[in-house]
């Protein structure tokens, strides 16, 4: 080490112990390997500031999606650690830039011990446990009688009114599990080592949400798209994060009537074969979609207005099936929560599954959004 570097090292030590963060950084910036020294010096003096530097980040851990009991509104001091998009009222921003287009492979790469994929078009149900709509169906997975659900879904009007061509946002699209992703090749094989998750917004749920928001905005339905990766790095707290994000948007934009949490499903046979829900629309392979409407169970899941959300779900289901027959699987009405207590227009929608391709999923998102735009009174050709 040169005499100059020795002097600077001495200065760094003195600065750290003397309490001078600025001096510590100035000295460390001149030393070899200064990136880690800068972080070390800053950590000694200001840990909260050091956390904001680009330290290595871990991968998200995938767990099975389940139900979650309602939580109290978080105080500002208890807000989650900021993600790529803000999650507090003061920080809510305009929609993020459109995810960049990523070219898709034309064929699967060489995979050691590949898994199999099979395509299946899921049909609508009938009989006990299903409520038939003008087009499409609702599957009753609750203890309520079918007649109870039928009465809820046949209400003449939606539980909210959307203003077309409004200068204020009417719809919010977001993703509790934003890192969920799809196949990137059309071949019916998958890589067992791939977790079907990525932070690349051109390949994960953000790509689907961006297409849906684009369609709605083009139709005159003012829509915001939040691209926060709520499930990274902590997957298990993702619904808490998306709750805070949604609440912040609703506080800043009281005009929002509809909140869509866009996910993808994961369907597998007992032998590990992945199933891709698939239909054909205008000669093109398209992922099937499924709406989930939660139901109050009187204890752990408190959704006092669940019938209103279900009414919206049934209306959207019917609009999709009338416009693009075969696009949907039956609406699932079950004891789920999914933050659906925040508005009477809050729904979760599964766009395809982890065996579908990104292209199939984005196409499905487009058709689902077109039907929603028509339902809400938008202008769709």
Automatic annotation (TrEMBL):
Compositionally biased tracts (Low complexity): 86-95
PROSITE patterns registered for this protein in UniProt: PROKAR_LIPOPROTEIN (PS51257)
Region annotation Disordered: where it falls in the sequence: 64-111
InterPro entries found in the cross-reference section: Spore_II_P (IPR010897)
Signal peptide residues on this chain, from the entry's feature table: 1-18
Keyword Signal part of the UniProt annotation: yes
One Pfam family, short name: SpoIIP
Residue spans crossing the bilayer: none
Keyword annotations from UniProtKB, A to Z: Signal
NCBIfam families: spore_II_P (TIGR02867)
Protein name per Swiss-Prot or TrEMBL: Stage II sporulation protein P
Organism lineage string: Bacteria, Bacillati, Bacillota, Clostridia, Eubacteriales
């Amino acid at each position: 080490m040169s005499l100059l570097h020795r002097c600077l090292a001495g200065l760094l030590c003195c600065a750290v112990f003397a309490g001078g963060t600025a001096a510590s950084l100035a000295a460390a910036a001149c030393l070899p390997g200064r990136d880690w020294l800068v972080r070390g010096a800053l950590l000694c003096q200001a840990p909260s500031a050091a956390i904001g530097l680009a330290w290595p980040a871990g991968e998200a851990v995938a767990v099975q999606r389940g139900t979650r009991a309602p939580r109290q509104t978080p105080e500002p001091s208890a807000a989650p650690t900021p993600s790529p998009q803000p999650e507090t009222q003061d920080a809510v921003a305009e929609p993020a830039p459109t995810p960049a287009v990523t070219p898709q492979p034309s064929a699967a790469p060489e995979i050691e011990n590949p898994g199999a994929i099979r395509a299946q078009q899921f049909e609508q149900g009938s009989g006990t446990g299903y409520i038939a709509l003008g087009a499409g169906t609702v599957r009753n997975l609750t203890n309520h009688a079918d007649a109870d659900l039928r009465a809820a879904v046949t209400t003449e009007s939606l539980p909210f009114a959307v203003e077309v061509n409004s200068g204020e946002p009417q719809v919010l699209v977001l993703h509790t599990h934003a890192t969920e992703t799809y196949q990137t090749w059309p071949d019916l094989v998958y890589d067992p080592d791939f977790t079907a998750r990525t932070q690349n917004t051109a390949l994960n749920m953000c790509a689907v949400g961006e297409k849906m928001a684009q369609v709605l905005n083009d139709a005159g339905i003012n829509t915001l798209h939040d691209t926060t990766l709520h499930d990274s790095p902590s997957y298990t707290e993702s619904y808490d994060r998306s709750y805070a994000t949604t609440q912040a948007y609703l506080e800043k934009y009281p005009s929002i009537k509809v909140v869509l949490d866009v996910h993808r499903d994961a369907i597998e046979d007992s032998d590990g074969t992945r199933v891709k829900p698939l239909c054909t629309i205008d000669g093109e392979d398209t992922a099937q979609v499924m709406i989930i409407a939660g139901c109050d169970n009187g204890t752990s899941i408190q959704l006092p207005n669940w019938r209103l959300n279900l009414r919206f779900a049934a209306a959207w289901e019917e609009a999709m099936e009338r416009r693009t027959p075969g696009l949907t699987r039956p609406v699932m009405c079950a004891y789920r929560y999914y933050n659906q207590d925040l508005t009477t227009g809050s729904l979760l929608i599964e766009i395809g599954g982890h065996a579908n391709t990104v292209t199939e999923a984005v196409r499905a998102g487009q058709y689902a959004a077109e039907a929603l735009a028509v339902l809400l009174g938008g202008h769709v050709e």
